[in-house]
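Quiz preparation item.
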């Protein structure tokens, strides 16, 4: 088979092209043999070519064959496991998809936890939470080791697999395996803050919301807020549904779902059934369709396509409301941390015109990944098998769901002990019809 021949040839190359300098400390775990490296790289190439559903969304001129050859050369010539994994991460990140990525658990575990949470707020790199008294929330970062932040981060961004630059921004400072053990942050105030990632830090301040339970709070005006941290655990959806049913019994006039930071899990169909009062549609899906004869014909071309040219398209499905669904007013509050199944929920919520969507654009990636795991090596990767569009055909990947009522997080919000973003959304919700 033609593809297999190329893979074997690639795997046997031990080219002398130098590996990029490691942007962090080495990993103290068993190295991988040449055979193990070749197996992982070959399997990755085959899975990407076969199942990756987002070829149409790649930049014009993207060349998988070239990208793979370059990263394979780096991966096989790498002096250690860390260098191999970084090369593979860069290959997967080049596909620019939030459900496609490479993970080396040994590399992740060897990296320290970040003693801060940092992302862009109002266009500036801002500390959201911190365990360091020298780096309080609201601090704005101008430089790292004397270099402008974006310039310093630029080579490291190439290892972070996300569907948009905005989501790379959200993830980059938490990817401590890409950082040196020690560096210096320069603040716009003129202060410099030395960072030692290997130092022992206390819990982040202020304390982050609970990530293992649904929280229900009552606000003035008859509004209840139901915060759902994720849809990965069935009990969380069940608890949210129970809260909705209780609101129905108590004749609560309005519910706001706080879905900020909800990383997804499984599409919460039961929760949708509990609140939707009009028909609603799901996404339009495209997924590669493999037909052996078609692929055989394509293999005879001088330049066979790198990805499957046959795409199966289906959807959007349509769901009908339940008679017993909650009939009061409903709204949702989202941000860039609302991803995957969380976005599945918000897309259907919006299509059924159930209520207002407050906050910031969502993550912009959902799909069913094809997983490959090497448990004995503690290495895995995943490749997204479906590309989704909004029910009306508009793009979704890398775009996300746009709020009807923008409620952006501001630097002033970060420094306020209250949750001002939530308060602002509730205020808008209270005064909406």
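Solution:
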């Amino acid at each position: 088979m033609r593809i297999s021949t190329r893979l074997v040839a690639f795997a046997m190359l031990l080219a002398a092209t130098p590996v990029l300098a490691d942007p962090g400390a080495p990993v103290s775990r068993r190295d991988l043999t040449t055979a193990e490296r070749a197996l992982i790289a070959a399997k990755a190439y085959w899975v990407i070519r076969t199942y990756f559903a987002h070829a149409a969304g790649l930049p014009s001129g993207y060349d998988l064959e070239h990208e793979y050859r370059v990263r394979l050369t780096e991966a096989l010539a790498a002096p250690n496991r860390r260098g191999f994994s970084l090369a593979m991460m860069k290959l997967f990140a080049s596909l620019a998809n939030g459900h496609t990525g490479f993970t080396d658990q040994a590399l992740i575990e060897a990296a320290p936890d970040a003693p801060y949470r940092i992302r862009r707020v109002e266009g500036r790199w801002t500390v959201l939470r911190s365990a360091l008294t020298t780096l309080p929330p609201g601090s704005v970062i101008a430089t790292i080791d004397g270099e402008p932040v974006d310039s310093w981060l630029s080579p490291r961004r190439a290892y972070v697999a996300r569907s948009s630059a905005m989501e790379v921004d959200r993830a980059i400072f938490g990817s401590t395996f890409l950082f040196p053990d020690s560096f210096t942050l320069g603040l716009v105030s003129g202060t410099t803050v030395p960072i030692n990632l290997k130092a022992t830090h206390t819990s982040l301040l202020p304390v982050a919301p609970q990530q293992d339970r649904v929280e229900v709070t009552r606000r003035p005006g008859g509004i209840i807020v139901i915060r759902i941290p994720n849809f990965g655990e069935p009990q969380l959806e069940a608890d949210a549904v129970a809260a909705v049913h209780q609101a129905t019994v108590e004749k609560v006039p309005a519910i706001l779902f706080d879905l900020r930071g909800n990383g997804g899990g499984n599409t919460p169909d039961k929760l949708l059934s509990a609140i939707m009062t009009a028909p609603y549609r799901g996404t339009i899906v495209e997924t590669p369709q493999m037909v052996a004869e078609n692929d055989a014909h394509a293999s005879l071309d001088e330049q066979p396509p790198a990805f499957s040219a046959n795409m199966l398209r289906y959807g959007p499905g349509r769901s009908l409301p339940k008679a017993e669904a909650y009939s009061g007013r409903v709204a949702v509050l989202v941000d860039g941390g609302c991803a995957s199944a969380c976005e599945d929920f918000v897309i259907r919520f919006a299509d059924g015109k159930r209520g207002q969507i407050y906050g910031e654009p969502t993550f912009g990636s959902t799909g069913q990944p094809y997983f490959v795991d090497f448990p004995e090596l503690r290495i895995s990767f995943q490749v997204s098998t479906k590309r989704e569009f909004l029910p009306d055909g508009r793009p979704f990947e890398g775009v996300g769901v746009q709020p009807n009522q923008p409620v952006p997080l501001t630097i002033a919000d970060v420094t306020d002990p209250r949750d001002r973003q939530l308060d602002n959304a509730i205020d808008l919700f209270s005064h909406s019809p």
